[in-house]
Amino acid sequence: MIQKPKGTKDILPSDIGEWQFIEKTARDVCRKRGFEEIRIPTFEETHLFRRGVGDTTDVVQKEMYTFEDRDGGSLTLRPEGTAGVARAVIENGLAGDTMPLKLFYIINCFRHERPQAGRYREFYQFGVELFGASTPSADAELIALGDEVLRSIGIQNVELHVNSIGCPNCRPAYKNALVEYFKGYTDELCDTCKNRLETNPLRILDCKSPICSSIAANAPSTVDNLCDDCKNHFDGLKARLDLLGIKYSVDPHIVRGLDYYSRTVFEFIATGIGAQSTVCGGGRYDGLVEQIGGPKLPGIGFAAGINRLVLSMQNGSNYVKPDNSPALYIATMGERASLEAVRLCSLLREKGYITETDIVGRSLKAQMKYANKIAAKYVLILGDNEVESGMAQLRNMSDSAQTEVSLSADEIARIIG
Ligand code: ATP
Ligand code: MG
């Protein structure tokens, strides 16, 4: 038996409704706010992610699906969308267009992680990137967009955590203070964090190991170490969130940990879906576009994990399963009836009715059983006599009442409503 690769998922027709609902909701909210869709390649040159995601991140160090192309280059399946979008912005000269540039995407991503509930090796993201605006209003607009999507989906018990990790002016001093503090606990930190002490000390703040997080609890806090500009920016963001009535808590343990991330970082966390509870994470990345060879262009973005959104919908949502059952099933006996059914089906579908007829060659009895199974609302029963006379019985499946109708799509449509 050939099985799907570890950490991947088949999304079956019985589950697809929730996925389509999330995607439609995301598209509608983006449209309302002037964000346009972009589609980027599934794979990119490996060095884009090394530079764009960052060499010291878990993603680049341990999780990428990297392979040698047949002509020798190194390619990587996208582990996220931001780097690819930023590359596309530079390559297509969008950075020269009217600013701000507001983009969104719905993509699959690939990371070689340990699979568990809410964590897969192929997963889906709805992501948003806003370029060319560095005001607190831009940050608030983006967070409000994420908030609106989650509220429109009807995700229960989501909390917004925000933080500011400063800028290239104030972060070095903060980093030093952090390293100083953690050095006092070097022996107790997990192996990964011992490493991070050298490469990426901010990342220790969001380590999930109980010992590291208890040590981190008393570490110097980012928000207490911001320069005036960063502090004003953060205050400006909070004022706008307050104005919009978006509840949040300031959480100094939210970090993105990369050098080009600056100021605002945030996560939406859904309680009640287990350990993998961050449904959406984002932040300001004013250095990214330059970092991968583009012009100086500020940006802020987020990505929401669609798999986790679907999981959290099990605790309640605004999703209503659409009624896709046929308005009409045409049961047939014999070749002439089958031809007539093909004609009527086609006309009724043109009018927008979900219509089916037999294409398996079943007996009349088996066709009636099938019509029941697919919950057809009406069944039209056609044999040679009916085709001959141009009249047939139309059965309402909810009460078995039968009406005689002529074989006219207009007349049938009038009755099935
Ligand atoms: P995590 O803390 O779960 O490792 P991350 O910081 O690596 O998340 P991001 O790179 O910020 O995640 O990706 C944005 C969102 O994508 C996450 O908040 C999460 O909802 C989703 N996501 C990330 N990795 C996975 C995965 N392996 N499987 C499913 N969803 C994922
Ligand atoms: Mg991760």
Task: Pick out its properties.
BirA Bifunctional Protein, domain 2, 2 domains, binds adenosine-5'-triphosphate, Rossmann fold, 15 helices, five-stranded mixed β-sheet, 417 residues, alpha+beta, binds magnesium ion
Please provide a written account of the structure.
- With 417 residues, the protein is of the alpha+beta class.
- The protein folds into two domains: 16-170 and 226-315, BirA Bifunctional Protein, domain 2 (2-Layer Sandwich), CATH 3.30.930; 328-416, 3-Layer(aba) Sandwich (Rossmann fold).
- 37% of the residues lie in helices and 21% in strands.
- It contains 15 helices and 16 strands.
- It has an eight-stranded mixed sheet. A five-stranded mixed sheet has the order 13-12-14-15-16, sandwiched between helices. The protein has a three-stranded antiparallel sheet with strand order 2-4-3.
- Strand 15 (391-396) and strand 16 (402-406) form a beta hairpin.
- Helix 1 runs antiparallel to helix 5 (136-153) and helix 5 (136-153) packs parallel to helix 9 (228-244).
- The longest helix has 18 residues, at 136-153.
- The model has no long low-confidence stretch (mean pLDDT 95).
- Adenosine-5'-triphosphate is lined by residues 80, 111, 113, 118-120, 123, 125, 276, 278-281, 303, 305, 307-308.
